[in-house]
């Protein structure tokens, strides 16, 4: 089988790198329309068996020809491409895995379920970190417990050495970050799927040294389809983003002033969207390089064998200095590569449009993470 990764950015090259080490694909291709980005990817992937080629995702016919030459396509492109790619995957009978990132786009993809199944195609959106890894963890909780009272998902990508004033590091698209902060968060509360304002319900969260007390607050996107999948199974579920203390209050000030608005304003004869200015300022003034860390904590409560139990998951993943791979690249890109590998080796055989919690078996998935030195600690105790 052959695989094509669309997008030579940080996530795309991490996916291609992982595939070159662990997968059984005969041919691994990665493509992007930007020459500079491709050249950077070539340098990063030097010494691997990955072919780097020009692909313009805006040109449908060009992309379709590439789909017809491979068995699996992985989209590491901005989420706006994914619905179009899903339709193309069905037409060309090519399996597709993507990073998701937008609830509406994922919903549109899921509307293609019957067509995908009819054409014997597997399409898996939301296959990164959150959603993605947290979705599989949630399935593991449901599989383990007899009944589930609550699941609290907490994830954050952070600088290893924070710098004021925001104590943050741009580890993926600033537009994706802004979207998480401004779109409503979806939670599941006793059978009801509710929308709440993001950047609210700030709580403290404890991690081992050197992190100590962190803050977490509601953001959009992390739950994705989980509230719908487990509407009748989990009583309460929410997702919060982890940051160093004080970050939420500072960013919310900018949002309250309108810096995330998409409506263009006239400024000395130029039509400018405040969100574009905000994204540019974040990229210019907030660090984009340096060692990062990804923190994950999932806390669940439920009943097992008639007794109240707590099941907790902890992951702290650091920047790979030897290979120059960020923790966010590792924890987002590698799960996508593992998912594609599971399609390739037959571990995943279901057809249709299915999100990770519906189709990915947790135990072998966690075993694959361990091979990549991504440690997910799981603890059970009575409560």
* CATH evolutionary superfamily of the largest domain: Dihydrodipicolinate Reductase, domain 2
**Distance N terminus to C terminus?**
48 Å
Give a short account of the largest sheet: 9 strands, mixed
SS-derived structural category: alpha/beta
Whole-number total of structural domains:
2
Share of helix among residues?
25-40%
How big is the Rg? Answer: 20 Å
CATH fold-type name of the largest domain: Dihydrodipicolinate Reductase, domain 2
Low-confidence stretches: none
According to DSSP, the number of beta strands is: 18
Q: How much beta, percentage-wise? A: 25-35%
CATH architecture term of the largest domain: 2-Layer Sandwich
Basic shape: globular
Topology:
Blueprint: E1 2-6, H1 10-22, E2 27-32, H2 35-44, E3 50-54, H3 60-67, E4 72-75, H4 82-92, E5 95-98, H5 103-110, H6 113-118, E6 122-124, H7 133-144, E7 147-159, H8 174-182, E8 185-189, E9 192-196, E10 203-207, E11 212-218, H9 226-229, E12 234-243, H10 247-256, E13 265-267, E14 270-272, H11 274-285, E15 292-304, E16 307-318, H12 327-344, E17 352-353, H13 356-359, H14 362-371, E18 377-382
Parallel strand pairs: 1-2, 1-4, 2-3, 4-5, 5-6, 6-17, 7-12
Antiparallel strand pairs: 7-15, 8-9, 8-12, 10-11, 11-12, 13-14, 15-16, 16-18
Helix pairs in contact: 1-12, 4-5
